[in-house]
């Protein structure tokens, strides 16, 4: 369903029910359909009302094509110098989108679970509206602190090979290679599963490299978040793959250190691959730490 939130259209899937709300925030370029079905169903079966949404510039939510394509090297350089580069929108804007969804649905408080970029948006939401969160869960995320985001060279080489827009076959091959590169060495998804995800994504809303670039610019421009995380007071779980080649595990340790009382959970054999085609064993291991955390967080939140 489409919801008007923060002045734009946000596509939302609501599992319904009268249980406490868990809001799931997807990562860079991802869509709400990329949360593994088994992951979502396990939350529903445990009694939670699950909200998933397409971030702005992704899936069926509003896109920002009129804002052009930021020059990523310039944005990165400005951010590294401690400046605030002008970008089409910020992670704080994306957090306001999520808050607007809660407002539109009349949800007073939610458990917020973010994946990768979604974890960064979730952190911004916890800073923006602390009274609206029962808990914060950061999966495969980062604080944005300098020097932490050091992907493995092999993955960077794959990421750098993105073709120009317009060649759909080359773009599909690129995404297939990238998803293979960030997958668990022990529990990788099959090529058939990855191709199925890409086909379902293309049928719903084909990925657009310009939109992903705008989201990436928002990440790079969010340089001050790390120093603000100490203000977060809600129960926090930091989940990360022990074998993540894209966002190194050091990012998880840094995030957990910055948020008082945060619980770190390093998942063996997991890479940067809970979505979009998470292996059943990876999904099971993440749920094994998330499902006990959520009710305990709600009990201990004032």
Unreliable spans are none
Query: Could you state the order of secondary-structure elements as H and E?
Result: EEEHEHHEHEHHHHEHEH
Give the oligomer, counting copies of the same chain as homo and different chains as hetero.
single chain
* Residue share in helix: 40-55%
N-end to C-end Cα span: 32 Å
Proportion in β-strands: 5-15%
| Computed CA radius of gyration, to the nearest angstrom | 18 Å
* Fourth-tier CATH superfamily name: Alpha/Beta hydrolase fold, catalytic domain
SSE layout and pairing:
Layout: E1 2-5, E2 8-14, E3 21-25, H1 37-45, E4 49-53, H2 72-80, H3 91-104, E5 110-115, H4 117-128, E6 133-139, H5 153-159, H6 168-181, H7 191-205, H8 209-221, E7 236-241, H9 250-258, E8 263-267, H10 280-300
Helix pairs in contact: 1-10, 2-8, 3-4, 5-6, 6-7
What does it look like?
- This protein has helices at residues 37-45, 72-80, 91-104, 117-128, 153-159, 168-181, 191-205, 209-221, 250-258, 280-300, and strands at 2-5, 8-14, 21-25, 49-53, 110-115, 133-139, 236-241, 263-267.
- By secondary structure, it is an alpha/beta fold.
- An eight-stranded mixed β-sheet has the order 1-2-4-3-5-6-7-8, with helices on both faces.
Which key terms come to mind for this protein?
8 strands; 302 residues; alpha/beta; 8-stranded mixed β-sheet; Rossmann fold; globular
């Amino acid at each position: 369903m489409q919801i008007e939130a923060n002045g734009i259209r946000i596509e939302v899937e609501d599992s319904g029910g009268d249980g406490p709300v868990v809001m799931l925030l997807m990562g860079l370029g991802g869509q709400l359909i990329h949360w593994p079905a088994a992951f979502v169903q396990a939350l529903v079966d445990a009694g939670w009302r699950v909200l998933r949404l397409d971030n702005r510039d992704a899936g069926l939510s509003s896109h920002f094509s009129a804002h052009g394509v930021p020059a990523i090297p310039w944005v990165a350089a400005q951010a590294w110098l401690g400046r605030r580069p002008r970008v089409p929108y910020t992670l704080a804007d994306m957090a306001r989108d999520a808050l607007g969804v809660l407002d539109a649905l009349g949800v007073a408080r939610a458990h917020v679970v973010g994946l990768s970029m979604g974890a960064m948006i979730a952190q911004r939401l916890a800073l923006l509206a602390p009274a609206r969160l029962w808990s914060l869960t950061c999966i495969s995320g980062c604080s944005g602190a300098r020097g932490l985001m050091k992907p493995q060279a092999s993955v960077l080489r794959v990421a750098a090979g993105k073709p120009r827009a317009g060649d759909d076959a080359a773009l599909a091959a690129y995404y297939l290679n990238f998803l293979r590169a960030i997958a668990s060495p022990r529990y990788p998804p099959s090529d058939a599963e990855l191709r199925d995800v890409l086909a379902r994504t293309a049928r719903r809303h084909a990925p657009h490299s310009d939109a992903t670039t705008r989201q990436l610019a928002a990440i790079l421009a969010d340089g001050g978040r790390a120093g603000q995380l100490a203000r977060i007071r809600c129960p926090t779980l930091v989940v990360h793959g022990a074998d993540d080649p894209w966002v190194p595990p050091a990012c998880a340790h840094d995030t957990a250190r910055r948020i008082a009382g945060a619980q770190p959970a390093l998942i063996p054999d997991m890479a940067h691959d809970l979505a979009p085609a998470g292996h059943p064993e990876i999904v099971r291991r993440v749920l094994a730490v998330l499902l006990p955390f959520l009710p305990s967080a709600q009990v201990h939140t004032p």
